Amino acid sequence: MITSFSASGLTARHIEALLEFFQGAGVDGWVEDEVIDRFAQSALEAEQAAMVRQSRGAPGQPGAQAPQTRNFDSSYSQPAQPQGQVQSRIAGQAAPPPLNLPSLNRSAAPEPQAQAPVSTSTDPAVIPGEQAVKSAREAAKSAATLEDLKACLAAFNGCNLRLTAKSLVFADGNPSARVMLVGEAPGRDEDLSGVPFVGRSGQLLDRMLSAIGLDRSSVYIANVVPWRPPGNRTPTPQETEICRPFIARQIELANPDFLVFLGAASAKALTGNTDGIRRMRGRWMEYDAGGRKIRAIATYHPAYLLRSPLEKRLAWRDFLALKQALSA
């Protein structure tokens, strides 16, 4: 992706935030500072060609020269300007650089071109489908411990998100804790560190846990999708379905007493509930973890609370309900 912007009027903080957004969105190139007016260049070339034809004379008249054909085997070079009048037609603007047109002669040997960096990953991309979901179920089922499950995820090649993510974001906290929190997918900060909920939303989550007497040593944190989608986009239904057997097995192996779904996406993926988060939050439900029923509750995702701080009061009620359940 290539982009351009004007930094006029922006503070250093604005530029820093903009660059962080561009990096997260996958921007990998910048246009040059000097803009080339292609419309003016086209008009300039057309007028030059007309002046050359006029200097040669009309066909069939004495002294007229035979029309010459352009040789496209090499880069196109602009004809000389007979009177130097064309340049003055574009006031205050220098002539743009000549275009390098590709050779139209198939017999000509191609010019050497710089090769793009080749990815060192040997894992090919796969077509998401039922076969990938089946492979995920078999791999997750084979894991006897959380360490085995993490190794299975690291070796699993059925999800294409692994090709663009920098890290496998498996879990954080205490696997033996009574409370397990499940989000949707890691973001940029999580992808860089390999730990879930470490960015701004993670800092807010830490404060929310601290408000009810908990911290990361007393909870277990994971995501439905363990790889960051490019540009922090929402995981596709196929990607979620492929990763769902792993988080389901992770919940079975962790065996918590309470589940907290951070956002509607994780709740819908694991319970099949189609309600929105406003209707779903604050109500206790049951999650079937391999025959064992686990009490679960959904609340707002911390990232949403950063955008909508007025909803923090409702999330606070949900965490108070969790605190009451823990003390019962």
From TrEMBL:
Primary enzyme class: hydrolase
Q: Which residues form the Uracil-DNA glycosylase-like domain?
A: 170-320
Gene3D superfamilies given in the database record:
Uracil-DNA glycosylase-like domain (3.40.470.10)
What is an example of a Pfam family matching this protein? UDG
**Extent of Low complexity compositional bias:** 57-68
Q: Where is the composition biased (Polar residues)?
A: 69-90
Instruction: Check the record and name the PANTHER family matching this protein.
Output: TYPE-4 URACIL-DNA GLYCOSYLASE, TYPE-5 URACIL-DNA GLYCOSYLASE
Q: What is this protein called?
A: Type-4 uracil-DNA glycosylase
